[in-house]
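Board work, copied verbatim: Farnesyl diphosphate synthase
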Amino acid sequence: MILGGPLRTQFEQALQDQVVSMHSPLEMVKPMVYSLNSGGKRLRPLLLLTVVAILNKEKVDKAISTAIALEFIHTYSLIHDDLPAMDDDEVRRGQPTSHVKFDEATAILAGDALQADAFAILAQDESLQDHQKVALLTELAHAAGSSGMVAGQLYDIQAENKNIEFDKLQQIHLMKTGLLFIFAMKAASIIVEVDQEVANLMTKFGQHYGVAYQIHNDLKDVVDLNEEVDSLAYSDIINQKSTYPSLLGIQAAKESLIEEIRLARVALESLETVCHKSFQALDNFLIPLEKYL
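↓ predict structure ↓
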C-alpha cells in the first residue's frame, strides 16, 4: 500500500524545493540529500499531513514545513544510528549507509546539519503564528532530544548484550521510535488548533501506532532472518539487542501487536465521534502493520 497519495507528491516536491533553496556548500548538501532520498516511506511527515488534511484541508500548506523538519530529524537519527560507534550498519534500504558512501566524519556532519536545519525550518515558517512555532519547536526538541529519541538511543546501546526487563524495552522503543510519531500528532493539533480532548486522542493514537510500528518491525526482522535479508535485521542479532519477539516470544509479540493496533483504532473511533469526520485515512497506516499476524 502506498500511503499519502497526493499528500506524498506534495511533500516530495516541497522537500526538493527546500533542498534546492539551501545555501550550503555542495560537499555538505550531497550527503544530506543522499540520506533524505534513500527510499524512506515518509511515515512521520505523512502521518502529520494526513491528520491535518482530515481536520482542515486548508491548513495542509501550513503543515508542510513542519513535516519537512520532522523528516530532517528522522533522517539525521538514521545517519547517526548507522555509525560504527552506534549500530555499525553498512547497508540501509539496500543502499550503502552514509558513512560508507562518504566517510564517517562527513556522515556525522550531515546528521548534525539536518538536525540544526530542522529547527531553522520551523523557526522561519512564515505561515504559522509565533506561539505555534514556539510550541512546535518545544515539542520537537523534547521528542528528539536528551529526554526523548537521543536518550532512547543511549539506553538502546547500554542494553546491548544484556538481559533487560520488558518495561525497559518498552521505554527504549517509546523514546527512540514512538516519540517522533507522537510529535507528528501533536504538531497537527498545534497547527489545526484543536481542543484538548481532540489533542489527547490524537496523542493516544500516535502512542499506540508507534508501539505497533516497533513490534511490527521486530517481527519483520524475525521473518527476514529466515529469508536472507537486509543487514539491519542481522544487526540486532549481532549486537544482541532485546526485541519484542526475543523477550516475549513470537506469539506473544503478535498478541501485543494486535492489542496496540486495537487501541489505536479505539482512539480513531473516538476521534470520529468527537470530530464528526472519517479517520479512515489514518487507519490506512495501521493496515500494513498487520502483515505478519
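The two ends are 17 Å apart (CA to CA).
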